[in-house]
Design brief:
By secondary structure, the protein is of the alpha/beta class. The chain is about 45% helix and about 15% strand. It has a single domain (about 10-255), classed as 3-Layer(aba) Sandwich (Rossmann fold).
């Protein structure tokens, strides 16, 4: 049977490993032609070989996202190799971590350049190509619930993911008239190299062995999360826009935005200032 993405052309940034690899494999399994991207050639080529070994179609574009030239090259690779672009997944990430007061400017710039500028530029260049093609498309930005939870020693990452969330909302508002859906995935704790390094560091921040064991037992595999991307790229998923999907123990969930409920606990001083 044909997959739900049969014939679609998909670019997945940062897909040489971790969640990006899982997204790329899921897209190919549903019939998409995939541009596999990584800053390093070896892992990107390994994923492309996994796809072609099972009868799929894939090509490689080695770029460190975060510049206009890199974004244009990614889109051009899809157009030149497969004839267009239907889906852009901005997954690439790289972060510097440590106590907030110890971070330097380069730590911030490196992380924000990859996550935020990478998402902005790849989304914009993909949207331009989709507009010119005249057949719509889908953009999927990968964010995280870290942006509103706050996670110690991950300040640049949390800030970057907040920027990615805001970007998704603006893109959704502006691109809807062009038939381009824009949504986001906020993966839960997933077994990737950066996540496992973070979990290993939690002991030094005071978590007990029992707490660490509980945390580890709840971690999902990348393959558990990847169907979210395939759904958002599908015709049914494209009916959504401005939505963030995540996973819980019970399955897919929608991550709701901020609410503005009355808070009497804010106290008498605040109430006095408004009277």
């Amino acid at each position: 049977m044909a997959g739900i993405l049969e014939g679609q052309i998909v670019v997945v940034t940062g897909s040489g490993r971790g969640l990006g690899r899982a997204y790329a494999l899921a897209m190919a399994a549903e019939g998409a032609k995939v541009v596999v991207n990584d800053r390093d050639r070896e892992p990107a080529e390994a994923v492309a070989k996994e796809i072609t070994a099972t009868g799929g179609r894939a090509t490689v574009c080695v770029e460190a996202v975060g510049t206009r030239a890199a974004a244009r090259n990614l889109v051009a690779t899809a157009v030149e190799r497969f004839g267009g672009i239907d889906v852009m997944i901005t997954n690439a990430g790289a972060d510097r971590r440590g106590p907030l007061l110890d971070l330097d400017d380069d730590d911030w710039e490196f992380t924000i350049r990859t996550h935020v500028f990478g998402s902005i530029l790849c989304s914009v260049e993909a949207a331009k190509a989709m507009r010119d093609q005249g057949r719509g498309g889908a953009i999927i930005n990968v964010t995280s619930d870290a942006f509103y939870m706050g996670m110690a020693t991950l300040a640049p990452y949390c800030v970057s993911k907040g920027g990615t969330y805001a970007l998704m909302l603006v893109l959704a508002a502006e691109l809807s008239p062009l038939g381009i859906s824009v949504n986001a995935i906020a993966p839960p704790a997933t077994r990737t190299e950066p996540m496992m390094k973070y979990v290993d560091s939690l002991g030094a921040m005071g978590l007990t062995d029992a707490q660490l064991a509980g945390f580890r037992s709840a971690i999902l595999e990348p393959e558990d999360v990847a169907p979210l991307a395939a759904f958002l790229a599908s015709p049914e998923g494209r009916k959504l826009s401005g939505t963030v999907l995540s996973m819980s123990a019970d399955g897919p969930t929608i991550l709701r935005g901020p609410s503005y409920d009355p808070e009497p606990e804010l106290g008498a001083t605040l109430r006095r200032l408004f009277n």
